[in-house]
Specification:
The longest helix has 16 residues. The chain has a single domain, classed as Peptide deformylase (Peptide Deformylase, Alpha-Beta Complex), CATH 3.90.45. About 35% of the residues are buried. It has three helices and eight strands, in the order H-E-E-E-E-E-E-E-H-E-H. About 25% of the residues lie in helices and about 30% in strands. By secondary structure, the chain is an alpha+beta fold.
């Protein structure tokens, strides 16, 4: 049974650690972590989540893109668990977009990210997958992948002027609609 886990908040040392690769996919704790990550991401209304955010310094992320109040134009994609993900390549072209983080509640930042990326990961069945992402899903992957390196979105800001409160972000979002 999947559980909703507590999310580590900015300042906790686990968010600044480089995560360890997962070796034994058959470990029941790894399967439990995958289920808990999915459930926690969905219940927290996140579009992604990384294992370090639930106090597990392991190389596992979840991508769960779907439209929400924070991301009304996000595409609806089936949630995916990625074990030991790798960034294979990234386009030279970057795009700035608004990001938030369940580990940094109340703040949003305008973060430049590669527009297109190539990714390799293992499924929970141990199958190796190579996929390409573009736009918002590419942004979500890069954000979650950063967590595995101990990097937060605020580290990617070009200027502190690009950091706003959730309230200001919502005001700006409403003005655009």
């Amino acid at each position: 049974m999947a559980a909703i886990r507590t999310i580590a908040q900015m300042g906790h040392p686990i968010l600044r650690q480089v995560s360890t690769g997962i070796v034994c996919m058959e470990d029941p704790d790894i399967r439990l972590l995958a289920n808990d990550l999915l459930e926690t991401a969905i219940q927290s209304k996140g579009v992604g989540l990384a294992a370090p955010q639930v106090f597990e310094s392991l190389r596992m992320i979840v991508i769960a893109s779907r439209p929400s109040v924070r991301y009304p134009h996000a595409p609806e994609l089936p949630p995916v668990v990625m074990v030991n993900p790798e960034l294979l390549w990234a386009s030279n072209e970057k795009e700035s977009g608004w990001e938030g983080c369940l580990s940094i509640p109340g703040l949003r930042g305008l973060v430049p990210r590669h527009l297109r990326i190539g990714v390799r990961y293992l499924t929970m069945d141990g199958e190796e997958k190579d996929v390409e992402y573009e736009g918002f899903p590419a942004r979500v992957f890069q954000h979650e992948f950063d967590h595995l390196q101990g990097v937060l979105f605020i580290d990617r800001l070009e200027s502190l002027n690009d950091l706003v409160t959730e309230q200001e972000y919502q005001r700006r979002l409403t003005e655009k609609l």
